[in-house]
């Protein structure tokens, strides 16, 4: 019997529903500040989310639709870096303002993980500053063993590199680790690393193919708040609130 010893969390869409009302809004404000006639609406941003990484999304948009005025090829890399740096600052300010709440059940779930003596880590392609703002400020009462973010790995999800790095840092076996993800690419990354995966859906990922996950729920759920709906998995006693102890038993069995 293999015992779960660690839980690794994606950030965007798992800890905070940041994509639609956080990252997208910050990108649009940045484009405006730099004088570019670019605005990513909700549906188009869903398309862009299929491309891992904010800098990569801007390059894709520049190539496909342009920024409304010419950008010399030799200026692209520096421009994208400058845009992304400003966008990250705006995003962090938005996060620290408290306007974007934690997703239902995530704080409770992390506390249950700590109480069970599990190693907790964050594995995200989001910028390191943004990841630290959430992990060490908003979730300052949660003890994370590590926060792996941004360019710490060369390959983005669905490549498993970031989860393989988590394994190296903890010295654990893949089957001893549980991943909480929300997207198709994230689920594939966790499974490619050989880990158990629970997917929690949101506005952008509820229609994605998450079938590779072991369990799929709409959110982790809170006893006195929003409860989740399970669309894949068979947990005895599940009532809309997913508990760490349930998952430890489920994956041990």
- Mass-distribution shape: globular
Any low-confidence stretches, pLDDT <50, length ≥5?
none
Overall structural domain count: 2
Order of strands across the widest beta sheet? Answer: 3-2-1-4-5-6-7
Distance between the termini: 7 Å
The name of the CATH superfamily of the largest domain reads HAD superfamily/HAD-like
Number of strand segments = 7
Question: Could you give the order of the helices and strands?
Answer: EHHHHHEHEHEHEEEH
User: Judging by the overall fold, what is the CATH architecture of the largest domain?
Assistant: 3-Layer(aba) Sandwich
Radius of gyration: 18 Å
The biggest beta sheet is recorded as: 7 strands, mixed
Helix content: 40-55%
Q: Mean pLDDT, nearest integer?
A: 94
What is the CATH topology of the largest domain? Rossmann fold
Q: What is the CATH C level class of the largest domain, in words?
A: Alpha Beta
Helical run tally? 9
Strand content: 5-15%
Secondary structure class reads alpha/beta
3D structure, described in words:
The chain is an alpha/beta fold and 253 residues long. It has two domains: 6-17 and 101-252, 3-Layer(aba) Sandwich (Rossmann fold), CATH 3.40.50.1000; 19-96, Putative phosphatase, domain 2 (DNA polymerase, domain 1, Orthogonal Bundle). It is built from nine helices and seven strands, in the order E-H-H-H-H-H-E-H-E-H-E-H-E-E-E-H. A seven-stranded mixed β-sheet has the order 3-2-1-4-5-6-7, with helices on both faces. Helix 6 (128-138) links the parallel strand 2 and strand 3. It is globular.
